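Milestone M4 deliverable, item 7.
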Amino acid sequence: MSEFRGMLCWDPATAANTIGTEAISPSPAVFRATHAPLRIKRARLDGRQLVLEGSPVDERAVLHDFLHHESNTGALLMPIVGESGSGKSHLVRWVREHLRLVDDRPESREVIYLEKHRTSLKAVIQSLIARADSDRLAQLKSEIERFTADVDASVLARRLVHALNETLVSETGKGVSGPARQLFGPHGLGALLDDPHVSEYMLRPDKFIPQLAGHLLRDRTKGEGERPPKFTVDDLPLDITDVSKASSLAKKWVQVLSSKADLQEIAIDLLNQHLEAAINRSFNLGMGRLLEAMTLVREEYHRQGKEIVLLIEDFALIQGVQKDLLDALVEAAYREGSTKLAPIRTLMAVTTGYFRDLPETALTRVRATLGYAYDLDVPFSQEDTGDEQIAEFVGRYLNAARIGSDQLERAGDNEVPNACTLCPLQPRCHDSFGASADGFGLYPFNRAALTRAVHSTASKAEPWSFVPRTVLGSVVRPILIEHASKLGCGEFPDAAFREEFQTAAIDQPLSTAMAEFVENHDATTAERRKLVLEYWGDSAAHGLEIDPALLEAFSLSPMKAGDVSSAETSPSRPQSRADIGTSPSATKGKTQTLPTSAQKTLQNIEEWVTRKDDLKQDYARAIRTIVATAVVQRYRWNAPLMQPQTNVREKGWPNNATVIGIEGSAVSGITGADSAPIQFKRSATNSRFFQSLIRAQNGLEQVRGEDIRRLATVADQYAEALASKVQRNLEITDDDLVLGLRASLLGGALAGQCWPGMSTEELLAAAVDDGGEWGSSNGMTRPERWMDVLNQHLTGRKELVDRIRTGLGISQGTGAVKMIDAARAVPLLEKAAANWSWDMPASKVPEWVKPAVRRFPSWSVVVDDQLKALQALLREIRVRQPRGVAGKNTLASIRTALDRAREVSLSLPTHRARNLEDLLARASTVDWSLISTLEDELGKTLDTERSKAPRLASAIRTAAQDRGRSLEVIRDLLCEADEWLDEALKGAEIRASSSAAKNAADGVQELLADWQSLVIEGVEVQ
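Output delivered:
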């Protein structure tokens, strides 16, 4: 029926106002409507320990025992013990509510009720002596009222500090030995409290003394949080700031206490022991004042012939008069054969720890007159799971939430109304979700979900414990209030539910087999369906089928018919923890035992999903190793083509979280885990996959074929990630190789092997040449800086080229790279050759490139130096060899000039003659057209000066080409011939004074004229 979908049969605001977590909070009507039997046992006193005995008893048994147990002293002290939230105050209140119903002589009893929230000193004393009348009691009440009216909490807090100081200083520590001895006296703990700087620390609002002062002067508010009603380590001035401001003695004590834990405990005990005396001193009561008052009260009621019934909701909160009050409660009424004081029966709720710390006189009296306490810390067990008791307890609160406190108040003492009675969905709802024995519907829980939620919120140390306050505050209220909107809109249970209610250790989680089945067959609501199966379906104890009404209420669609049968373990309850590591065939009588280590691994992998446990490091490492190795083994090193790597784990593919991330795995000291290329989410599918890997690793047969196929798929899928990781580790990514190729090209340019404008084939050949032969060529003379940069580059070039080859090729035979992947190399080379500058920050340069480029930051300067050198060379040639003069004509002219010089007796020195002849011979073999080519290239470079990139490419092309020695030979010849002619002319002038000399000079002049004519006649268009 559609009306069941998202049904809310309660108002969240009404539920919030009706359901409290404290026994003192609800009105009598709500209290009666929500009361369910508590789990109570007698506990025998063994020293200061409590030993549970017998079967559980109910509240009526406690009430009957309390009213009818006869004490031979006339003073009965019956403790109700239990941890916080166990229901102690609730039981005391229940006794109070039922006293009038069972008391057969109410007129002979005076009931005094000390409520949990009325624990100020004034309220306690007023409650104790309210109906007793005497002058001394009236004076005590007057003093307390006057004091509390005149003093505020801050003043009282300071008085308490000073009173503690005075009390501790006055204690001599006589008879005390050991470390505690030094804490007594004027130089002990009291001196610490006496220091103004320390006392200000202890008066901070979050410390014990200011809170105590407030509680002594005013009653507690309902629902006010509790803290231990005594000093704790946090109240000691151990983390005090600016300790230098304290006195030298106080500084010493701060240092001593901070470093010695044993002294801290002794100091705390000492403060707590003297706390009551300090309170009495602060109130000017004096020790024994309340004992005296209670004695007067008991005398007064004895005169009236009454027995006192004292009900204390929380004894630990009655601070300042506990010792006096206890002494008064255990004071014998019968003395010397007659009754001197009114008999007193005290039902006292007290936490277990506080009970064990009661004065020995009180414990002795309990042992002597009663011998036991009533203990509410009675956990359930595997044999006594408490499902029905939990359902009865919660059912009453669910009903109260539906009805609301106003309607319950109107019902008064009549039978509690059942909200389900008039609901049209009641039959279907109770059939699907169940009801308590009282007929109260458990919706939106059922018994399984309710029990599991209770277990989930219990203490991990005591998973079977049932603490009513915890159940109300952590289970009932959150579901009815915080989760109501999600239920109403069809999104319950959701991720927040899973976060709040983790599967308890004592409960079986939904098996990964069933969870995987759901994940594979429910694409949209798998997570919610798994929660429903685990909590409401008791971990699919009866298979995967869910009650249709439950599905409808939670807005879940039925799974397709026939799907259920395909789940491996759907017909029966999932395996227990003990069964993990045993093959599925174990249920058929065949078992296969796993090694203990493998069993632990499989259990952790299972609970990684079912209980949201962390996947332990060792187990996660085993899984990562299998997956990482599979990727390596299937990788062919051909996409992209590169040299196969040995020891890939060290080359960027380790078996850790930087490669394989597993959600919920324990990662220690690993950076980069969030960016791992392979990621496994916490899911049942992955859990079963991991378990198959572990089984396969241990050689077992129970390995699912689909998981092995998945491993192969994963290995193929992440081959590219492996290549990328290795490339990044070796610094041979595309970006790295582009920089390496650019560095190689620039080095080739320095060696005159390549330059901009060359074909791709020529550039690639130069880029992968290790330059082993480049330094021995007889090339042109370069500037000194150019050669320095080149020589430094050559020292690192082999490593540079080897890494380029590794990144772009594969090895053959000997292991050296002999084949380059041109399909990958050419685009990278073109990208590298698109920029012939080097302005890379060192931080972005791969380590293997750096040795070859250490001097490259001066690259543009080096190129400019080379251009300047070429320009200077060209100028030297052009002043002697104008453009348009053929080189062969210049050579012929020089030869003719030499011959004519000899004819006119202008002979050359032998060494110069040889040099000139050698230069003529060499110049006759060179290409004189290089002069014009260089001139044109330099001109183009200057023309592109306005555009940086083209100019750089042109400049590098001009500077890089190795023109050999040709231009230098031409220059040297022209310069030598020019110098010779200059010398010849000078020699002719010297001889001009004689006729013979004159004839020689004329011959020289004629020779020069012939030279000029020869040069002019030899002009050719180049």
